[in-house]
Amino acid sequence: MNRPGKAPVTYRVLLRLLPRLFRERHGAAMEETFASARAEAARAGRMAVTRLYAREAADVLLTGIRLRVRSSARARHAVVLGATGRRRSPGAALLDDIVLGMRSLSRNAAFFAFAALTLGFGVGATTAMYSALKEVVLEPPAYAGGERAVRVWRTMGSGLRVPPNADQIELVRAETTLFEAVATYSSGKVTVTGLGEPVQLAVQRGTADLASFMGVRPVVGRMFTDEELAGEGAHVVLLSHALWRARFGGRTDVTGEPLHVNGEPWTIIGVLPPDIVRPDALPEPIDLWLPLGEAQQGSSLMARLAPEVTIEQAGDRLTSLRGEDAESELEVVPATSMREGGLREPLRVLMIAVALLLLIACVNVANLLLHRNAARGRDTVVRAALGATRSRLVRQALAESLLLALCGCAMGVAVAWAGTVAAAALRPADLAAIQAIDIDRGVLVFSLLISLGAWLLFSLMPALRGARRNAAEALSSAARTGAGGSARLRWTLVGFEVALSFALLVGAATLIVNVRDSARRDTGYQPASFVAMDVTLPVWRYQNEADRRAAFERLVTTVRRMPGVDDVALAAGVPPHMGIAFGIVHPEGRAPDEEATVFHGGGIDDAYLRTIGQPLIAGRTFLPHEVRDGADVVVLGETAARRFFGGGDAVGRRFSLMGDQFTVVGVVRDIAIVGLANGESDRPIAYWPLPEVWEEMQILVRTERRDADFIATLTSLVRTMDTDVLVTVTAGSKLLGATLARARFTAALLTAFAAIALLLSAIGLYGVLSQIVTSRTHEIGLRVALGADRASIRSLILNTGGRVVLAGLLAGALLVTGGLRVLSSSIFGIEHRGFGVYGAAALALGVTSLLAMWRPAMRAARIDPVRAMSAD
Amino acid sequence: MHNTEPLTPLSMAILLALMDGPQHGYALMQEIETQTGRRPGTGTLYAALDRLEAEDHIAECAVESAEDARRRYFRITPGGLAAARAESARMLDVLDRARARSVFTSFSTLRESS
């Protein structure tokens, strides 16, 4: 029978909040209704279920209160006193307490709002951040056996990772005791025509074993056969589920139809299941699967570890197998390492920050509750004196806390949800992984429990103490002294908050200064002086190299004639997205290097250096005929020239690389070739005359113009040559700026956390100082009566708070110095930024603290001695 | 003429929903959402049903096709019908007074459709 199922235990527990009679009468039907609603919400997703629970919890709670309030208006008086002798069921008594709690909280709306907000921010921020960490770093790829999937890289001496070569793939395949399964694949883009406008689609090429490795079975049609995978691979293709639905209307008779891939007819043989992911867990779509023929090269290698084999064991074994290849070794890394894309460190830093925030939130809530309980001390004592039992008083304090905690939790869920939505909306373009964050339920529960625990601890303790106190003593003194022990505890908590906030502030300021300095770094070229056009020719019409070169040369000539254009260059890459080349360098007249060198740079033409504004230090750039003939000449960067030819003049010297001899014709300044974020500018640079023109090239245009008209003219110029050309135009400075997007994002998040922490500390400070002023009204009145002037009273109060802030600052400085030392050793670009940062953080904290202390201090200064002393 | 207590919007929505025949809790919940744009929680809904039952505006009834023994169906009683009628009259009254004060310029079209 297909029913919505039983209502979960949580809901049945919730029903205990309703009056017994009502529950007996409607409970079963309510459970059934809830189960139906839950089944409906479950179809809409996890968030809908979470929202349903939150709404139902609030609704049942409020209904329980309303039903009771309605049924016994008269009993309420006894409840308030807590002295009723009538025996009531525990559930009923709890609700009585909650009714009382609501009444008392509604009289202290500001306290209530602060406390709920505090808890909400702490829980929400922690949950959102941990969910992001889990989604991006911790979750294995979503296919069968994904938790044991690893990626095998060929790692060069300099740490650069490239796909393994054919021999190395065979080595790995032979290790059947280490790996249960091995699969190779490669990813790329193709242009598909005949489906309306030409479109660029993401393809994955896979060998026969990739489908079984990932446990993929086509929903329509079949996988590749062995014959189709032989040689270069047959022209057969599997469609992604989404593409099939969108472009082929989900027809099951689609197999056998042609698809024009790069201008050639391919045959559709099947459709992939809807939930397919990339084997390396990168959150990018796959539109088509093509066969990866045996003869094809440059494949990425994935393997599944055999049971009992650890990633370290596999790594050690492969290192010992490096074989003939002296330049590189095989490295085994978790499958998700690509998805992380350098996010692991920033996310950890943010996780630490957010944990501090949760701690501050807990401290603050504890502080607020201590304040509240101190203020209520007298009230408690009166009730105890009138005969309320101790357990009754404790329960009442608990009920009020529970109510606050529930509201705080609801806030937490809301903040966590808003946080993940905001993070997804604000994420920089290269952080695609953040797109699909789901709130992690486990950590939500964990954060809620932590904050609930802190809450209960600090609300229960004073209640117990208050219940034990001697009534007569308390009545005479509670109003005046404000409980010395509790005040000391509260000052300690405030100091702790200040310290943690200071640590967060320094962290945020450090990141901001880092980002600013990176943005200001001398890049070595002039990114603001050119725009880059990424042009992809329809490869099927430009099959041979000569055609492509002719087409691009024609384009360059046309663009050069445009008004406002100073220079035009053709290149295979543009900073910060240059190519790499590696190999053992053998300089003339010296022994060959031991380790392979990784060069950044690649193929350029004679106009390139002028166009991007990279200055020559010695020699010359390439001549047009050198570019045309592919001469064996090279232009080196300063670092490369120094490394191979010492301090002397490198121009005219020769070296060999991968069996070819090259003559150095020029030396250029080093540039920030991989962008600004990494802070390195001393990587070896080498340029060669454009060796080959591929279908996708960069046309760089040196110009003063950035306007939309100009860009549109550029684009249409290219399109008039061939309508199937794909072209995007981006400013050089924008390409460079994008490399800082991630650091900016991290800095923005950390700043937000620090701001919240600062606000929470200010609230804490304000709360404690206000209470101090209230409890010392009598004493201050006396001082004024004895002749103290207003200013001295004000500074008396400010001094009290100032000492705690100062102590917190010092503790925070110690904490952050130790913390930064640990963090700066990690790869994430945090360095110790000197005392300016500390000063700025201290200033922000000082000013905020002063603002928080000002009102209580002014209130103290305005105390009227006559009224202060006559009260009570 | 209005000799009954005014109904809350939720009670009115429940009575209107039951005019088409007996309903169970979940169906009522969905119907009320269609009528008012807001879905009541289970607590609110059953508290309202409890009150309406106590006021003899609705009554529980057996429905043969019920697929779940826990499902309880409610039907409207003659008293409930009268209350709904009285409430509608009260609403019309309110509308008349609103028209007299020119709250709507297009009141006549509203009147026709009601």
Share in helix of chain B: 55-70%
Describe the largest sheet of chain A.
Answer: 8 strands, mixed
Strand content of chain B: 5-15%
Strand proportion of chain A, as a percent range, falls in 15-25%
The end-to-end distance of chain B, rounded to whole angstroms, is 20 Å
- Overall geometry of chain A: globular
The coarse silhouette of chain B is elongated
The main sheet of chain B orders its strands as 1-3-2
* Helix fraction bin of chain A: 40-55%
> What class, by secondary structure content of chain A?
alpha+beta
How many DSSP H or I helices of chain A?
28
So how many helices of chain B? 5
**Mean pLDDT of chain A, nearest integer?**
78
Largest interface: A-B, 26 and 19 residues
Report how far apart the termini of chain A are.
Answer: 72 Å
The beta-strand count of chain B equals 3
Q: What oligomeric state best describes the polypeptide chains here?
A: heterodimer
Give an account of the 3D structure.
The complex is a heterodimer of chains A (872) and B (114). With 872 residues, chain A is an alpha+beta fold. Chain A is built from 28 helices and 23 strands. In chain A, the strands form 3 sheets. In chain A, strands 14, 15, 16, 17, 18, 19, 20 and 21 form an 8-stranded mixed beta sheet that branches. In chain A, strands 3-4-9-6-8-7 form a 6-stranded mixed β-barrel. Chain A has a 4-stranded antiparallel beta sheet with strand order 13-22-12-23. Chain B is mainly alpha-helical and 114 residues long. Helix content of chain B is 57%, strand content 9%. Chain B has helices at 9-18, 25-36, 42-54, 78-100, 107-113, and strands at 23-24, 58-61, 73-76. In chain B, helix 1 (9-18) crosses helix 2. Chain B is elongated and about 55 Å long. Chain B starts with 8 loop residues before the first helix and ends with a helix. At the A-B interface, helix 2 and helix 3 of A face helix 2 and helix 3 of B.
